[in-house]
Amino acid sequence: MPRHGSLTRVTIVEDHALFAEALELAITLQGHVVHRVDTAAEGLSQNRLLTEVLVSRPTVVLLDLQLGSSFHGMPLIRPLSQVGIAVVVVTGSVDRFGWGEALFNGARTVLPKSAPLNTILSTIRLIQEGRRVLPRDERDRLVADFHRYRAQEQDGRERLATLTAREREILAEMMEGRQVREIAQAFVVSEATVRTQVKSILSKLGVSSQLAAVGLALRGRRDAPPVRRRG
Question: What would the DSSP string read from start to end of 65-105?
Fold first, then answer.
């Protein structure tokens, strides 16, 4: 247990109450000073959430990435890291690209929620001792994977942006699982016309199948050009 003069202040930012309570109890029993942010507080905003964390003056922040439907932990990592706070992401996500993004933004390490409690406690201890908590080669690999993924996403968005308005409408129908005949009926055109448009979509997106086109569109959906849908 740490000496009184070297207590670590740990702030938990986690929306799953039972998991957060278990962490709080275990860390407190180790002699650390623990604060838990209420991510469900009324009127809480992303900026206020950051302020709540900073006000607790933590040495270490245990941060979940998925904080309910209103917040995401990722935007908190860089501003916390920049003021010298050690951010440890504890997440249920298995998205390795997301792990790489968290590390790129300054997180010391990323731990799955399935990790033993002792792993989290030992990570806090290593940070307290000023030691590295993640091997450099593993960190570099995850960050490199994130950069490759981000480059692929940007390339996909640029390809989606080359589609005409009608091609985006056709692609939207494909994303709904509709076949060429159904699309032709919906747009009151021939099946041959739709097939020609589908062929153009595949060519512009650089893919060889409708399934691949739909997959690319789904990955870039948040940032793809707006799709006009038929009423």
Answer: SEETTTEESHHHHHHHHHTT-EEEEEES---HHHHHHHHHT
Q: How far apart are CA 52 and CA 221, in angstroms?
A: 32
Both structure tokens of 77: 């990592």
Residue 228 zone, left/alpha/beta (φ > 0; ψ -120 to 50; rest)? beta
Mapping DSSP to helix (H, G, I), strand (E, B) and coil, where does residue 165 land?
helix
- Burial class of 229 by CB neighbour count within 10 A (0 to 12, 13 to 18, 19+): exposed
Q: Output the six-digit token pair for 139.
A: 């960190």
Residue-by-residue DSSP string for 123-148:
HHHHHHTT--SS-HHHHHHHHHHHHH
Q: Is residue 62 classed as helix, strand or coil in its secondary structure?
A: strand
pLDDT tens track for 43-74: 788 889 999 999 999 999 999 998 877 788 99
Contact in structure between 84 and 72 (CB atoms under 8 Å): no
